[in-house]
Amino acid sequence: MFWKVESRKEFLVAESANMDLMQLDGELIDSLMSYADKIDQKVSKLKRLAQELRQPLEAAKGREEEYLGNPLHSFPLIRHMYQDWQYLAEFMKKPVGEEEIGFLRKKLPELPWQAETEEATVYIFRIAETHGMMPWEMANGLIDNVRLNSTLSALDCFEVAKLYFKWGYFKQALQWISISKTRLQEEYSGVYEVLGMSGQDVALLQARCLVELDLRDVALELLVKQPDLAEHSTSWLDQFEAYPHMTVDSPPTLGEDFKRLCRSSFSPKPSKLHCRYNSTTSPFLILAPLKMEQISLEPYIVVYHDILPEGDIHQLIALAEPRLRATLAFTEDKSDSVFGAFLPFKDMNSSGEPVLDRLTQRMRDITGLQIHQRNRINIIKYGFGAHYAARHDFFNETNSETEGYGDRMATVMFYLNDAPNGGATVFPRINVKVPAERGKVLFWYNLDGETHDVDPKTVHAACPVFHGSKWVMAAWIHEYDQMFIQPIYREGKMKH
Ligand SMILES: O=C(O)CCC(=O)C(=O)O
Ligand SMILES: [Fe+2]
């Protein structure tokens, strides 16, 4: 797996970036209001002028000849006609609110780009898919039995519909369009048109989806009802048939087991494993035994509870937050799984904070293994919709990391906050789900303890977070670092 830092995707993961975005939105709205006020002022000036200019005409009504016989009437008329209209032409031509337009133009490059907006739409898709939510449930803020205090607007739903259409999911696209239409209130249709969503666009996308689903008749019925499309409705449909939709790229694939485990409806079978106090892994534990829960024996997976002191968590998050960068994680087969903000430990370690030493020591105590503060410790923050696609932590191949330190034989992960809405770590092959709970530590071996054969059953993923965020600190523990503490080593079958 490779990491790539993508600074433009910040909006998707960093609350601070979104906060900046909200603040900018506020400034732009203020500027829009001031633009409207300026137009208002011009309009009322013009109306007042028109009223004043009309007065002599009103006074003369029905007795024009007599009226104009008075030089104090005819002179003003001539002067007015010669002078005033020239000035008025100038005044009418004068642009209004140039400053505000300039401000908006200047800010446009700071706003999210299309790629980011699409990515955010993909998050909606991923959450809907993972939790098997119907479009209307998502649009009403119902996710995995949790009711969020928010809804999606007509424009939002239309954007999601376009994404489903792009991927060739015509039925879902139609559902999203129909929600969008019900949210498109008549009185606001003019407003929506300004924002790039006309009734015509909606009807055409709807008709196109219907044609793709071999429902030309229904599509025709729809278009003839649309005043601006009725006349050419058949030629639209002919065109849609002649040029069927070409599916461009594909939606992220989410395994069935992944989805099943991520849902709150999943309840694990009672296991024969149990909880106990561990006081044997390292000398430290004799003094301070830790509450340990066995999750699986093969592969070996355990959870420790109540490990991290509040103060350390606070310090760590405070240290990491300003340094987080939006990140893309690359694997060989999947190149685009953005999953959150990420901070390599070495970037943070330069600050020489004692909390980092304390936490690394804690990891050593828990695992009984050697952990070095190189760049193998990461802090990850998952924002809305962010997840971690299923993969193993071992490489089972020769690369610069395995050559130098051996493979990633074990993983230890601290949950730094409660993430009750999504965010669990799941091992789809062995039906294991570990909810993200503050202060908990998850530890597992990726390789067989004796032979160091890779264990494909350790494939794991992080469920998308659909409300709030999830913070973890994870360390990959390497084989060669254990050289002096693990003398027993038998050659395995599957070793690279
Ligand atoms: O965040 C999680 O639950 C999984 C993270 C993980 O697998 C890793 O960092 O290796
Ligand atoms: Fe992992």
TrEMBL record:
A Pfam family the protein falls into: P4Ha_N
Protein localization: Endoplasmic reticulum lumen
Enzyme class: oxidoreductase
Documented EC number(s): 1.14.11.2
Cofactor field: L-ascorbate
GO MF annotations in UniProt: iron ion binding; L-ascorbic acid binding; procollagen-proline 4-dioxygenase activity
Entry protein name: procollagen-proline 4-dioxygenase
Organism lineage: Eukaryota, Metazoa, Ecdysozoa, Arthropoda, Hexapoda
Provenance organism: Drosophila erecta (Fruit fly)
Family: Belongs to the P4HA family.
Keyword Acyltransferase: no
Keywords of this entry: Dioxygenase, Endoplasmic reticulum, Glycoprotein, Iron, Metal-binding, Oxidoreductase, Vitamin C
InterPro entries reported for this sequence: Oxoglu/Fe-dep_dioxygenase_dom, P4H_N, P4HA-like, Pro_4_hyd_alph, Pro_4_hyd_alph_FE2OG_OXY, TPR-like_helical_dom_sf
Residues covered by the Fe2OG dioxygenase domain: 373-479
Alphabetized PROSITE patterns for the sequence: FE2OG_OXY (PS51471)
GO CC terms in record: endoplasmic reticulum lumen
Location (main, coarse): endoplasmic reticulum
Function: Catalyzes the post-translational formation of 4-hydroxyproline in -Xaa-Pro-Gly- sequences in collagens and other proteins.
Keyword Cell inner membrane: no
